[in-house]
Amino acid sequence: MTSAVHDRMPVMLDPESYDIWLDPGMRDVAEASELLKPYDARRMRCYRVSTRINHVANDDEECSTPVELAEIQNHLFVIAPFPAEAAERDWVPGEIFAIT
Length: 100
Fold this sequence. Notes:
- This protein has 100 residues and is largely without helices or strands.
- The protein has helices at residues 18-22, 29-34, and strands at 46-48, 97-99.
- 11% of the residues lie in helices and 6% in strands.
């Protein structure tokens, strides 16, 4: 799902894996590598978010709050292609998406 929005895949962990991933004493490469598996796309959602997310000074929940089309500003670029799951919706070129 994320490849339609960005060319990098973030590490998405299940909560039960947090302690292993964040353990500063972790030295087992094989065990850590086991955590680096594609996240189940069925557990993700794709939706429009505000352009506030484009500014590093904005670091709050509002950055990932869904917005309506009327709230989205005009953009100078187009993000494409859109996620396959969203193909049936009326997306506007340049929309910003969040994948959670």
